[in-house]
TrEMBL record:
<dbReference type="GO" id="GO:0004519">
    <property type="term" value="F:endonuclease activity"/>
</dbReference>
<keyword id="KW-1133">Transmembrane helix</keyword>
<keyword id="KW-0812">Transmembrane</keyword>
<keyword id="KW-0378">Hydrolase</keyword>
<keyword id="KW-0255">Endonuclease</keyword>
<keyword id="KW-0540">Nuclease</keyword>
<dbReference type="GO" id="GO:0016787">
    <property type="term" value="F:hydrolase activity"/>
</dbReference>
<protein>
    <recommendedName>
        <fullName>TNase-like domain-containing protein</fullName>
    </recommendedName>
</protein>
<feature type="transmembrane region" description="Helical">
    <location>
        <begin position="12"/>
        <end position="30"/>
    </location>
</feature>
<dbReference type="InterPro" id="IPR035437">
    <property type="entry name" value="SNase_OB-fold_sf"/>
</dbReference>
<feature type="domain" description="TNase-like">
    <location>
        <begin position="50"/>
        <end position="178"/>
    </location>
</feature>
<keyword id="KW-0472">Membrane</keyword>
<dbReference type="Pfam" id="PF00565">
    <property type="entry name" value="SNase"/>
</dbReference>
<dbReference type="InterPro" id="IPR016071">
    <property type="entry name" value="Staphylococal_nuclease_OB-fold"/>
</dbReference>
């Protein structure tokens, strides 16, 4: 009887060891997903502290939106990116990609102390995040819907956006794809 019980305990210990091993391997794979190009990349992860939930009123183009802040409509220029103008090659596509990213989403704005509050066209300079944690500016670069753009000074997410752009270039995505005719 003791032999049978000892055998069952041994089987249970092996099973627990197996479950632990599989769990550790699975956790390691999950943590490494953040390092894979295009899969939960750091460029698309929101910071812990995000400010200013706003109401989106319009997507102007791939790097500019309009929002309501305190009952007043304001233009917002996305920091760190430059998208094609609507009349340019892939301009409509870029705007559509931004619309898709923001559709039915909570829109959150984040400022950056390294940049001014507004640009020369009186647009607020901000990063856009969604309530689901998406860094929209970075995602636009990752999709190839915009290029990384440093106006004057380096900004908070520059290294992440440059990495996202390199991936988009390597994969010939969006603006890095087949030239327009």
């Amino acid at each position: 009887m003791k032999e049978v019980r000892r055998f069952e305990v041994k089987k249970l210990l092996y099973l627990l060891a197996y479950v632990l091993l599989v769990s550790l391997i699975g956790y390691g794979i999950y943590r490494n997903l953040n390092k894979l190009p295009g899969v939960l990349s750091k460029a698309t992860r929101a910071p812990e502290a995000i400010q200013n939930q706003v109401t989106l009123t319009k997507v102007v183009d791939g790097d500019t939106i309009k929002v309501l802040i305190g009952g007043t409509e304001q233009s917002v220029r996305l920091i760190g990116i430059n998208a094609p103008e609507s009349a340019d090659c892939r301009g409509d596509w870029s705007r559509t990609e931004l619309e898709k990213l923001l559709e039915n989403q909570t829109v959150l704005l984040e400022d950056d102390s390294t940049q001014g509050d507004k640009d020369k066209y009186d647009r607020l300079l901000r990063y856009i995040h969604t309530g689901t944690g998406l860094n929209v500016n970075g995602k636009m670069v990752e999709l190839g819907a915009a290029k990384e753009y440093t106006y004057d000074k380096n900004y908070k997410y520059k290294d992440l956006y440059v990495s996202a752009q390199n991936i988009a270039k390597q994969n010939n995505l969006g603006v890095w794809g087949v030239p327009c005719e």
